[in-house]
Each structure stands twice: as C-alpha cells, then as structure tokens.
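Sample A.
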Amino acid sequence: MAAYDTYELTIIGDCYRLLAACFYEPDKPLFVEQKVCSNLAMLLEKISPEAAEAARDMSKNLLRQEQQQMLVDYAALFVGPFELPAPPYGSVYLEKNKTVMGDTTLQVLKMYQDAGLQVEEKEPPDHIAIELEFLSFLCAEEVRAHAQQDDERAGRLRQMRHMFFTTFLDVWVYRFCEAVRSGTGNTFYLALADCLAAFVASQQRHEALSV
C-alpha cells in the first residue's frame, strides 16, 4: 500500500489549506501580503507541476484584479442572489434533485463529527472550502500521530482521509471546476479551477495506489 511520508503529507495538507482559503470571500490585500498563491505554487511543484503552473497563473492574475471586481465575480459564481453558475456545495452535484443540504451533506457532517470537529461556518458542511480544510486537518493530525508514534491513530486517520477523498470530494470536484470555467471570465478564478482540478487529480492517482 503506497503512503506519503510525513514530510509529503505536511505539504499535501498545506496545499489543501491554501486552496481552501481561495474559495472563501476574497481579500486581495491579504492574499498578496501572505503570498497565498506563490506559496501554493512552490508547494505544488513537489506534488503536481500542472497544478503549480496554474497556481503561478493565479498569482499573476491576482495582481491584475481590483478587490471590488473580485468580490462581484466571487458572489456571481458562488453566493448569489441569482442562480449560481458554480454552486460550491457537494450535494448539488451528488444529489439527484441537485439540492443543497441533501443526504450527502449529512454524511459529510457525520465524518466531521467522527473526527471530533464541529462546523462553525454559516455555509453548509459540504462547501468546497470546508471539505478542503477538513482534508488539511486530517493530514495534520496524521502527521501529529506519527510524531507521537501512535501508529494505530495514524492508520485510522489515513483511512478516514482516503474514505473522505474518494467518497466525497473526488466525485464532484471536477464538475464543480468545469462549472467555474464555464461560469466566469475572471482569470483568477479560471486559474483556481485549473489548479484545484489538477491537484485533486494528482491525489486521485495516489489514492488509487492506496487500496
């Protein structure tokens, strides 16, 4: 069974965390100050060169954006009040009636609870940013378990990470990314969709070796 070492797993967790940040309401000055996109590109070089290239495009395109236009384009894609071209909720892509807060949403919430977490965000638990943050959390906890030489807990966390990725995120994220590509002309979000899709594809290839 293939497995990441703790160094690789730390990088993966950081990639999930930085990608999650990009799917919350944008704050261009903060993104630039914290070098979110350039740091993401640097980390992705070790994981997925294709995703790293998209992250570099994100960094370049971010500098060309006006904060207000980013907010407008973000809302048009992901918030409303009108029909959303790219709903950021897994249930919309996984439920037959394409509704928010479906059965799959509750299943995602149960996995958070099983991991000892509570969702404090106003968004439904299967929002793309929250799912990415959860995977980042699982990576970090697995690294911590290894550091404590708690192999049993590390194994449980690894299985949870594998199950969540393959059962939930991986099965809807590509349709979501395609919806983003079709739904906006904003170059930052176009590059973000490319980055997320390439990164998840790299993880999918690894997870396929882990069963």
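Sample B.
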Amino acid sequence: MPGVRSGGDTPLWRAVVVFRLAALAYAGALILGTYHTYAHPSGGLVVLALMAGWTGLMTLASRFAWGRCWPLLAGDLAVAAALTLSSLWVQTYQQSHGGSVTLTTSWGAAPVLGAAVRGGPWAGAAAAGLLGSSTIATRQGITVSTAGSVVLLFLAGTVSGYVVRLVVRAERQLSAAARLEAATRERERLARGIHDGVLQVLTLVQRRGAELGGEVAELARLAGEQEVALRGLVAAPTPAEAGADPAGDGPAGDGPVDLCGLLAAERSSHVTLSTPASPVPLAPHAARELAAAVRAALDNVVRHAGASARAWVLVEDLGDEVVVSVRDDGPGIPPGRLDRAAAEGRLGVALSMRGRVRDLGGTVGVHSAPGEGTEVELRIPRAATR
C-alpha cells in the first residue's frame, strides 16, 4: 500500500499499538466500573470515548510515515497529558488525593513509548518527564503511588529507546553482512571463470612469446603485465567488502572503510603494494580522499618517470596517524621543479594530492633528487578521519 512505512523499527511500532490497545482496555474497565463515583460521571465517559477515538487514530497513523513523525507524536503527548489532567475535574477531591489512579492510568505511557521508538532513550526520557509532570499536577503533589508511576514512565522511555537503537544497529549490521556475502560469492564466481580462461591464456602468451623472442617478446611482456593486473583486480575487495556502497561512491553504512582494500586495485606488475596484516579503517570520506591522492601520485610516476618505471606503495598505521608512501625509481625531480610548475599553473600535485590531504588535516612531503627517484609521503592524523 502506498505510503505504508516499513523498516527495522516496524515491529516496535506494532508493539506500541498493542500496548495502547491493552492499556485502553484496562483504563476502560476501571472507568466503567467506577465512573458513577466521580464528581462528573458523564465526564469520565467522555474521557473514555476520547481515549478510544485517539487510540483508533494513532493505530491507523502508525502504519504510515506521517504517523511516526514528531508533529503527530507531540500531539499524542499533548492529548495524553490533557486527558490525564482532566482527572482533576472528573474525579472527586478524595479520589484525586486518596491514591486513586488517574483516568488515563497506564494508557498515558503509550506516547512515551512512541517517542522512544522515534527518537531513542533521550526522547523517551523527555516524554516521560512531560507525562510525569501532568500526573504530579493531577495529584497536586508527589505520593508513593505517583512517584512509582513517574519512575515507571522513565524506565519505559529510556529502556525502549535503548532497545530501538540496538535493533537499528543490528539491522544495519545484518544488511552489511548480506551485501558482503553476496559480493564475495559473485567475486568467487568471476574469479573461477577468469582463472580457468583469461589468466591461463595470458600465461601461455607470456611464456610462448618469451620463448620466441623478437617483437613477440614485447607482446609477451604486455600479456604478463595484464595478467598481474588482472590477478590483483580479482584479489581486490569489492566495494561492499571495502565498506563502500556498491551503487555509488558513498559508504555502505556509517562504519569505517579499509584503506588497504581501496588501494588493492592499484597493484600491478609495476606497482608493489605493501600493507599491514590487519585492516586500516578510516572514515569513508577520508579513505576515499587518501586513495585518490595515492592514485594521483601513481599517475605522476607514469607521466614523469615513464610507463616502465616501478613504484612502491607502503601503508603504515601508526595509531595516531596513517602514513602512505609512494616511491618510484624514476629520474627524480630537479630542485625547484615543483615550485615552477605551481607558478606556471600546472597544479596536479598541489590540487590532487596536497589539497585533498590538507582538507583532511594532513601533510604531504615530497623527497626527491636527480637520479634517485621520488618519494611522496602522505600523512593523515587519525583524529581527522573520524
């Protein structure tokens, strides 16, 4: 049905409905059994009718998204508080001060549970404070019975809100696990097909081309490079395994992303990647930006040192910071070359690497000398990646 809301918290909203109906039945039995003793008996019946009508409305509304939004929940709290305060007018003075329950009794706790489901333990506690204040005002003081009712309201609001947070977190983890399992199975299926076909052909071309020599040897070299690159691509984590959203560039959830997984695709016959044995988790945005900076550094190696230059990428997790070094065996950078490039408007290094890393609160160091290759060191403070 259009507009119907579904999600991990739907069973909890149904539980609120069940509680509201059961509490209405309990309050109705008390009112029908004692309304003739009230100062205004007809007022008690009117309050019961209003409780029944509002229960029907909230039961229907809870099935839709608009029925779970704050404006309606605030109205739910206001109605419960007003009907609770009506006990001052409906009941006698002796009933109000003699320990009798209010007209709404436990029915007034339903809005507290709704606020807890919608906003968590703090929202539940705030709603409990509002309903508790109306109960105290109705009884014009704090008695043992009133204090017990208020404490139960606070417990219901906070505990229910905490349970909601656990349910939402468990749903996210289950969804992430399902995506990871599906991605792993798909990668294994593709890997079997690639291994049985493409990789064997590339291996054969590399071996036979090297044996024949001549111009065919260059084809053999290219086939060998593609084999290494393809093996690295097959071994690299999928977006879901690395923590990214398979449908886009965003994270699969609020959890961290493994930087090593994002960089695994850069491994090739000319690029050696060295990472810690354990994952290097970073905030999704920080991981993507740092990986992009590393790719920019590798692009510079190809652009300035040639396609045959080798590069080594080292990832270090130092606890309070993450360091990624990109070193090549190219001719190096003459002194002042980077400054002249920046002055001439060629800002590839400045924008692609320095800008990204600076936005993360990190630094970029370039160490190079003619004939000694170039090393780019990217440092990101751990506090800036959370």
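B remarks: Residues 144-196 form the longest helix (53 residues). The longest strand covers residues 321-328.
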